[in-house]
Amino acid sequence: MAMLLDIVSWVLLSAGGAFVLIGGIGALRMPNLYTRMHAASVTDTMGAVLVLAGVMVQAGLSLATIKLVAILLFLLITSPTSSYALASAALLAGIRPDAGRAADNTTTEGEDE
Amino acid sequence: MTVLFGVFLLTLAVITALAVVHTRNLVVAVMLLGIFSLLLAINFFLSDAADVALTEAAVGAGISTVLFLGALAFTSDREHRRSGRRWLSLLVVVSTTMVLIYATFDKPRFGDPEAPVLKHIGPWYLEETPKYIDIPNVVTAVLGSYRGYDTLGEVFVVFTAGIGVLFLFSSGGPRSRSNRRQEAPGNQVGLGDEQLLVVVGRLLVPFILLFGLYVQFHGEYGPGGGFQAGALIAAALILYTLVEGQQRALEALSKRALRWLMVGGALLYGAVGLAGMLMGSNFLDYSVLADDPVVGQKLGIILIEAGVGMTVCGVLLTIFHAFVSRGRIR
């Protein structure tokens, strides 16, 4: 049983680590701010959730798990909010969402090509 | 493994520090300083110094970032390119570094069990604290009671910083006063129409406040205490100011009340010390505050931690409001 729990948490932690790595590579390699944010959001959603879930499996039914759940809830509320604040501030600063030739640069009006 | 992780984090911290020096964009520098503080906080935590880590994370990464950004609102966010005569500063920095590195040769190796601090004073604190003070968190006992003078000094340093900022901001002369009046309608702080941020901010404020109070009153049992709690409560109230606007925040806790908080905390700390003297013992000796010396120690620590929390919270909020009232933060 303990062995099984170890395997489950190992899989969760590795998957979480992989997502964090992917997010990191994406944040480095993506061409502009919005796509970089998109890549980085992988770390605070899948990465954080999986890592915390893996740690929760290790902690078992204890006070630590309750604290981890609280951390998870806070992360799930605050990280999308901060992403929103960042994107909103970038838009206010005049950075247009422009992924190459994608058609989403109509969201800001009054700016010339 | 821990050592490896620590070395990795310290390397990252050095890289971040170099980046702070290198960058000309001051907003970027402020953000990098926040990252630097977080790295240091993790490092403190790795060294089992949870109390210090909590302080570093709350003050270094949290509040000082806000205060730096507030200060940047007065100036340009670009650093001036200084030319010439930097050799002298380089010389001073290099020689200071040399002296510091030379000084480390005399220090015991990291984690050395033969280090003097682990031979004499450390074990004494660990062994005698249950007898004299009887609280689980020895760090709080050291900070509040054994080294009460040092903590009193720290509180006065924080208090002086608050007074200094108030002095700087109130001594602008008539010219700046007229400027302030002109700017008054414009400097509306608050998120205004950012509905999502307002909703989430309102959701978070009570929890941060609750956590701050927990850290304040749980400091005897777990990591925490007045400094951390003051910073956390100040952070919650700064968030409240951002969400609801400065008007509402000042209605809840006026500048006058903040000044009283700032002065009252330092006074409370000093008064506890004097009370010990009046009751026939030394300054900052809490044993005489109650019939049972252990109860007296606990009472004294709770009171001085409350004083520390009040002063830290009052000073941080006073500085924040001073920036906001004068700044062009939109």
How would you describe this protein?
The complex is a heterodimer of chains A (113) and B (330). Chain A is mostly helical. Helices cover 75% and strands 0% of the residues of chain A. Chain A has one domain (2-88). Chain A is built from three helices and no strands. Residues 101-113 of chain A have low confidence and may be disordered. Chain B is mostly helical and 330 residues long. Chain B has two domains: 1-81; 114-330, no CATH class. The interface between A and B is small, with 7 and 7 residues.
Write the layout of secondary structure elements.
The complex is a heterodimer of chains A (about 110) and B (about 325).
Chain A: H1 2-29, H2 33-59, H3 63-92
Helix pairs in contact in A: 1-2, 2-3
Chain B: H1 2-22, H2 26-46, H3 50-72, H4 87-104, H5 116-119, H6 121-132, H7 138-146, H8 148-170, H9 173-183, H10 195-217, H11 226-244, H12 246-252, H13 255-278, H14 293-326
Helix pairs in contact in B: 1-2, 2-3, 3-11, 3-14, 7-8, 7-14, 8-13, 8-14, 10-11, 11-12, 11-14, 13-14
